[in-house]
Amino acid sequence: MAKNVVVLGSQWGDEGKGKIVDLLTECVQGVVRFQGGHNAGHTLVVNGEKTILHLLPSGILHKGVECMIGNGVVLSLPELKKEIEVLEQQGVAVRSQLKISGACALVMPYHVALDLARETKRGQRLIGTTGRGIGPAYEDKVARRSIRFTDLLDPEHFSDLLQENLDYHNFMLKNYFMASIFDYTQIYDETLALADNLLPMIADVPLLISAHREKGYSLLFEGAQGTFLDIDHGTYPYVTSSNTTAGSACTGSGLGPRYVDYVLGITKAYTTRVGSGPFPTELTGPLGDALVELGHEFGATTGRKRRCGWFDAVAMKRAAQINSFSGLCMTKMDVLDTFDTIQIAVAYEKGADNFYGRAPVKPIYESMPGWKCSIAGVDSWAKLPDKAKAYLKRIESLLEVPIVMVSTGPDRKHTIQLEPIF
Ligand code: IMP
Predict the structure, then answer these.
(1) Which residue has a Cα nearest atom 23 of ligand 1?
(2) Active-site annotation holds for 42
(3) Which of 22, 38, 42, 115 is labelled catalytic?
(4) pLDDT confidence of 49, banded at 50, 70, 90?
(5) Which residues, other chains included, contact 298 with Cβ-Cβ below 8 Å and sequence gap of 6+?
(6) What is the pLDDT of residue 130?
């Protein structure tokens, strides 16, 4: 029986992980975020009520479930406080459920300014970041100059670190980017005020994970973004600044690799991406517009319109290999309800087997007939039309990974569970 389950996006993010994590949380005692920051936007709909989470693990709406933010996450204190307060107003006891690793690198106000200044400087070649300071925060981490959550326990030490960081970043902002600089005292005061509010939740997350294991409890590891936004395995440089793939669940939390029991890949029934970069199956005409409209494809964090296209089985095969998916969950299947024909990219022209090169690749498609009826809210395999079943079966055979769940709408109830995960 699976104990530790990793849930990951297998495309470019926005696959609908939030809903699935929320649903699977019924089977676990804890949920762990292990990478990314508040660039993520996880939308949950429970009893018709919509909640968008950016930093908090999607299990937070379940009473008594321990939610952990692992060392791999970059933490914006103002954003975290804001998110906690919104949920508290809805009656969620966030503070008693949430534990935050002291090793989290902080996203500071100057990181946001640097993110925006860099994008402006890149001009046409911009990455299309979420503008949340995520890249610069990870840069500081790798450069070994980050201010980490634990540093706030010692105000004098924090003061020294802040001074060093500001000297450096203010110099870059002023002289290289010709941008405004930051005031030491203001950041110092604001950060320590936030620390008073949030430090009570600091914890040794690897130790907590180990304690869960010893008790025989189950944990969910909740990925943010998606496989092809991975800093190493994604469409570099059009990626995010963390590892979004399966190995990161271990390095970003302190879970030992031998204890991963199941890796669930979440994929849309088609493909979307926000921001710049390669996207072989992108549809720029009316079909793409139809997917945007039918799928409500606007970013949960930035509100940007997502680029849309057909399902790319070549890319997905790569995602399945890198992440060693045990099973797949296909989401937003109902968005394809009205299409006469549905295409699947089964190869790329000229024998290309990936899209990492500088030259764009062109997909070779296989066509399948659409099912042309509403499957919105369908919750059992038996109720699916044969053509929808055929679409799922074809994808399964192309990827050689079982589809274990299908999502047909935003609510928890709109789900077909084909195989148990826990
Ligand atoms: P950053 O993570 O803000 O640095 O943005 C880098 C790239 O990742 C951009 O293309 C963003 O649009 C994309 N990205 C970051 N977070 C998400 C997400 O949660 N969903 C989808 N794309 C994302």
Answers:
(1) 225
(2) yes
(3) 42
(4) confident
(5) 292, 304, 305, 306
(6) 93
H or E stretch including 416? strand 415-417
The answer, yes or no, to whether any atom of ligand 1 lies below 6 A from the CB of 128, is yes
Residue 212 falls in the annotated catalytic set: no
In CATH terms, 265-417 corresponds, of 3.40.50.10490, 3.75.10.10, 3.20.20.70, 3.90.170.10, to 3.90.170.10
> Given pLDDT bands bounded at 50, 70 and 90, which one contains residue 32?
very high
Check if 375 has its Cβ closer than 6 Å to any atom of ligand 1: no
Query: pLDDT per residue over 188-244, tens digit each?
Result: 999 999 999 999 999 999 999 999 999 999 999 999 999 999 999 999 999 999 999
Q: Is the pLDDT of residue 46 over 80?
A: no
- Buried b vs exposed e over 351-370: b needs ≥16 C-beta within 10 Å? ebeebeeeeebebebeebeb
pLDDT tens for each residue of 378-396? 999 999 999 999 999 999 9
CA 390 to ligand 1 center in whole angstroms:
33
pLDDT in tens, 295-318: 999 987 788 899 999 999 999 999
Residue whose CA is closest, atom 10 of ligand 1?
Answer: 275
Is residue 370 within 8 A of residue 385, CB to CB? The reply is no
Domain made up of 105-198: CATH architecture: Orthogonal Bundle (1.10)
Architecture of domain 4-101+202-259: 3-Layer(aba) Sandwich (3.40)
The residue nearest atom 16 of ligand 1, judged by CA position, is 39
> Does residue 41 line the site of ligand 1, with CB under 6 A?
yes
CB 218 within 8 A of CB 3: yes
Q: Measured between alpha carbons, how far is 291 from 299 in angstroms, rounded to an integer?
A: 14
Ligand 1 binding pocket includes 231 (Cβ within 6 Å)? no
